[in-house]
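Need a sequence for this fold. Nothing fancy.
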């Protein structure tokens, strides 16, 4: 009787395993491939080629802006062999996100996941058309989060070791539920296992704004900020949390609110600010005209900081100027 009980327990535990192995093949990625590949498209935009994914029954497709930049003749190839002509609905060059559209029936679609829930080490898959090889899936893990390298103005990339190559741009990075948690965007030259993806939560904000307004507007403080680094005479120290204000534009929202050079922004509302890049990204999506409370550490004459609270009304960011980049 005891042996029978142990046998039943073993069989139960085996049956509860979410990762099923059959003939040496892990079925978790087989299920992902079957679910995702039909909704991933190949894009031919003349001199540029890439990937994309269909997000709704109306035929909206998300891809990278650099794939379709300045192109009118965009051809879309589905995994089921159908071919469509696409038109550009809108784009955001500063995040490298574009929204295009095809007219078709019975289109396969893919759902978004929550990129805020990602964990380093989590299994993921990249799907796309590397080197024109459509419906290619590669697998790996989340190698890191919140990477700030890249050619876009707004940077908060997911790093993955899933193999990403030219042609993967615009294709989805998905979790084991087959949900989009990022869009594969670039690789580092002469690197292996270093792919970078735009987080899905940022993509959703861009797409929602393009569908509702036809363009992108961003919140604005009117400051230049950098990371806060504390080093002693021996050259030892650490990077502290917060965004150090280097300059404040005259008559900008920050100036009106009383922010001064040397201030350190520690919180925007209830959100703790870790660095200057996060400050820029978070402010960009605050509602224009809304009032937000900032928690600031202000330097004192005794080489310390005094915490103060300031209320600031979010402005509309003017056209970007690379020589005068401001949050």
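Here you go.
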């Amino acid at each position: 009787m005891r042996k029978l009980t142990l046998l039943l327990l073993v069989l139960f535990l085996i049956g509860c395993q979410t990762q099923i192995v059959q003939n040496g093949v892990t079925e978790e990625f087989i299920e992902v491939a079957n679910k995702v590949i039909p909704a991933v498209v190949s894009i031919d935009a003349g001199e540029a080629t890439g990937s994309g994914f269909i997000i709704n029954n109306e035929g909206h497709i998300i891809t990278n802006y650099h794939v379709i930049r300045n192109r009118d003749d965009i051809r879309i190839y589905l995994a089921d062999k159908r071919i469509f002509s696409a038109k550009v609905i809108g784009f955001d060059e500063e995040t490298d996100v574009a929204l295009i559209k095809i007219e078709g029936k019975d289109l396969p679609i893919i759902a978004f996941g929550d990129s805020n829930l990602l964990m380093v080490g989590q299994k993921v898959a990249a799907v796309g058309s590397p080197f024109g090889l459509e419906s290619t899936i590669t697998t790996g893990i989340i190698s890191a989060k919140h990477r700030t390298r890249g050619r876009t103005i707004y940077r908060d990339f997911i790093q993955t070791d899933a193999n990403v190559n030219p042609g993967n741009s615009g294709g989805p990075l998905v979790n084991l539920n087959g949900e989009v948690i990022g869009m594969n965007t670039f690789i580092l030259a002469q690197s292996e296992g270093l792919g970078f993806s735009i987080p899905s939560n940022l993509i959703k904000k861009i797409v929602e704004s393009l569908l509702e307004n036809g363009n992108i507007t961003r919140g604005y403080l009117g400051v230049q900020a950098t990371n806060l680094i504390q080093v002693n005479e021996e050259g030892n120290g650490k990077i502290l949390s917060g965004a150090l204000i280097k300059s404040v534009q005259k008559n900008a929202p920050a100036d009106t609110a009383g922010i001064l050079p040397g201030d350190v922004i520690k919180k925007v509302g209830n959100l703790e600010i870790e660095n200057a890049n996060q400050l820029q990204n978070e402010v960009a999506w605050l509602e224009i005209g809304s009032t937000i409370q900032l928690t600031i550490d202000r330097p004192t004459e005794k080489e310390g900081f005094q915490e103060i609270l300031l209320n600031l009304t979010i402005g509309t960011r003017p056209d970007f100027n690379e020589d005068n980049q401001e949050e």
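For context: Residues 6-14 have pLDDT under 50 and may be disordered.
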